[in-house]
Amino acid sequence: MTAFSIESVIDEFETMTKNAGHHQRETLRQILEQNGKTEYLQNLGLGGRTDPESYKACVPLVTHSDLEPYIQRIADGDSSPILTGKPIPAISLSSGTTQGKRKYLPFTEELVQSTMQIYRTSFAFRNREYPIGDGKALQFIYGSKQFKTKGDLTATTATTNVYMSEQFKCTMKDIQSQCASPDEVIFGSDYQQSLYCHLLCGLIYSDEVQFIFSTFAHSLVHSFRTFEKVWEEICTDIRVGVLSSRITIPSIREAVSKILVPNPSLADSIYNKCVGLSNWYGVIPALWPNAKYVYGIMTGSMEPYLKKLRHYAGNLPLISADYGSSEGWIGANVNPSLPPELATFVVLPNIGYFEFIPLEKPEMQELETSSASIHYIEAEPLGLTDVEVGKEYEVVFSNFAGLYRYRLGDVVKVTGFHNCAPELRFICRRSLMLSINIDKNTEKDLQLSVEEAAKLLAEEKIEVVDFTSHVDTSTDPGHYVIFWELSSDSSDEILQSCCNCLDLSFVDAGYVSSRKVSAIGPLELRIVQKGTFNMILDHYVGLGGVLSQFKAPRCVSQSNNKVLQILCMNVTSCYFSTAYEK
Ligand code: AMP
Predict the structure, then answer these.
(1) Which residue in 430, 555, 547, 554 sits closest to 95, CA to CA?
(2) Nearest 10 degrees: CA dihedral of 257, 260, 264, 266?
(3) Ligand 1 centroid from CA 214, angstroms
(4) pLDDT, tens digit (0-9, with 9 covering 90-100), for 230-247
(5) Three-state DSSP class for 15?
(6) Which residues pair with 571 in a beta bridge?
(7) Which atom of ligand 1 is nearest to the CA of 320?
(8) pLDDT per residue over 299-357, tens digit each?
(9) CA of 551 to the centre of ligand 1 (A)
(10) 252 CA distance to ligand 1 centroid (A)?
(11) What is the pLDDT of residue 364?
């Protein structure tokens, strides 16, 4: 690791987090000095003031929909200072897999800088614990499609915007092992061909690979599920030194063919290791003996993939990557040895101005009178250093990219402090997913129910490959529908028990009381054919998303017509809960 001192990065981080309060005030001052003359801020009457009190008094809390008209004007080519003093050079598109719609967001150089700071910080702590050499990394990464907005700005995913920046290319040389695959693979136009070549290139350099990475755990699991299907073909390619005919894109063929030479002994070794594995347990350390860890976002909606990822990773540590969004970064994982379920993120106090809305779950009587959209009782937002350990909050931030008091919609729990900066655990997206009556269930509640019911399949060695849900109000009363894709067939008897278990595992008081009085009908479990979730993935990729950013939608609304159609057309059997029958 040249030109980069781990100690100095850690020292800088320690000093900064000790002075978190000071950095927050200073960061707000800089944001407002840089952008105070924008149309948005001028209309709010700040009049040049940059202190937190005036800021909070003048500037309202907003969501993306409040800012959409401003961002749209920027995308359409209005280069006057609307949200930022300097012109916005590009637009980022959120993954859209959470809410079904891709959001437009401003992208600026400052976001590249904060990305670098976050990457450098977590890398320094990671490398202190699990040092890696100068070798390569097997990275399942994909550049996404780009298009020009009406105003001629490039619009693509935030990660692609970052990958394309010069600053990123320079800094990453210092902090990240080189990707085993050439750029033509990363930026190829067919993700299935790119994925095959990532695996192939990773194996060509198997002794040099230091770690395995993808943005999200889903993509890591998807990659190794694919490997189970194509490994023999990859062995043949390595044995004869000729790329499979499945790779048809000329630029990928040319780039990969340059590094593919006949290597029968490597092919034999891979073949023998693969046949020697029991159900692919520990395939990663077996094939990449010098890999030190597996890295990617494994928290939140990625937790359901951890079991399978652990299976593939065997004894290798899984390290959860940092916490951010297309809007901007929030925190770095500086405790890499914690298992992903316990991962926390320390907020970096100089990348934005952070506030936290205290959230409390309402009591039962309040629940009955509250509208379906109120899941939490909110209090006044608190500053970064004022939050309390053990409490839950919604994240609000203001940054250099034109977002002011922006509600991110994520719920986090403060688990402690690193010096004076809070450590956050990601809990869930705030948006309610399942609600018919006075019931209120989030993606986390759904995940817990699915985990509980999936235990009944574990004895049969059957896994839930993926899952989602839907509120069906076409019946009276309405009911929850859970879709499951399974690794192999199970009996009706077991699936009926799983269905009952799912129903009973939603323990939210509103749900239980509604089920008891039949204000909500019996939960329905629908089993879909193998490959259904890959069709959903294909659908999102077709809309311009990328494999490595894919988050399966955990609740499909009626308006998400296409995805609901894919699910419904692939149902092979369904079960209705009898759990509440008297
Ligand atoms: P996107 O805007 O499509 O990049 O998605 C951003 C959202 O992904 C965040 O608001 C979070 O809900 C989720 N997310 C990002 N990083 C993490 C993380 N480390 N753990 C859990 N969820 C995350």
Answers:
(1) 547
(2) -150
(3) 14
(4) 999 999 999 999 999 999
(5) helix
(6) 528
(7) 19
(8) 998 999 999 999 999 999 999 999 999 899 999 999 999 999 999 999 999 999 999 99
(9) 9
(10) 31
(11) 61
- For residue 121, how far is the Cα from the chain centroid? 19
Specify the ligand 1 atom closest to the Cα of 97.
3
CA angle, 356 as apex, 371 and 32 as ends, to 5°? 120
Distance of CA 302 from the midpoint of ligand 1 (Å): 10
481 φ/ψ sector (left φ>0, alpha ψ -120 to 50, else beta): beta
Q: Is 152 exposed, middle or buried (0-12, 13-18, 19+ CB in 10 A)?
A: exposed
Q: Which two tokens stand for residue 489?
A: 């067939």
**C-alpha dist (Å) from residue 566 to 192, 237, 282, 482:** 20, 35, 33, 14
CA 281-134-205 angle, 5° bins: 50
> Which token pair is 466?
């993926």
For 13-69, write each residue's pLDDT tens digit.
999 999 999 999 999 999 999 999 999 999 999 999 999 999 999 999 999 999 999
Nearest residue to 97 (alpha-carbon basis) of 543, 540, 566, 564: 540
Atom of ligand 1 nearest to the CA of 408: 10
Asked whether the whole model's pTM tops 0.70, one would answer yes
Residues lining ligand 1, Cβ inside 6 A = 94-95, 297, 299-300, 323-326, 408, 410, 426, 429
| Type of residue at 27 | T
Q: How many CB atoms lie within 10 A of CB 3?
A: 9
Confidence at residue 541, expressed as pLDDT on a 0 to 100 scale: 87
Q: Which atom of ligand 1 is nearest to the CA of 96?
A: 3
Q: Give the chain's radius of gyration (CA, Å).
A: 24
- The sign of the CA dihedral 370, 374, 380, 384 is positive
End-to-end CA distance of the chain: 67
Of 509 and 384, more confident:
384
Closest CA to 401 of 169, 96, 151, 86: 86
- Distance (Å, whole) CA 287 – CA 314: 12
Alpha carbon of 80 to those of 107, 176, 369, 406: distances in Å? 16, 38, 46, 21
The backbone torsions φ and ψ at residue 499, rounded to the nearest 5 degrees and listed phi first, read: -60, -45
The confidence band for 295, taking pLDDT boundaries of 50, 70 and 90, is very high
User: Is residue 528 scored above 50 in pLDDT?
Assistant: yes
Rounded CA separation 88/317 (Å)? 40
Tokens of 255: 């780039």
Tell me, what's the pLDDT at 547?
Answer: 86
User: Taking all residues of the chain, what is their mean pLDDT, rounded to a whole number?
Assistant: 92
Question: What's residue 372's pLDDT?
Answer: 44
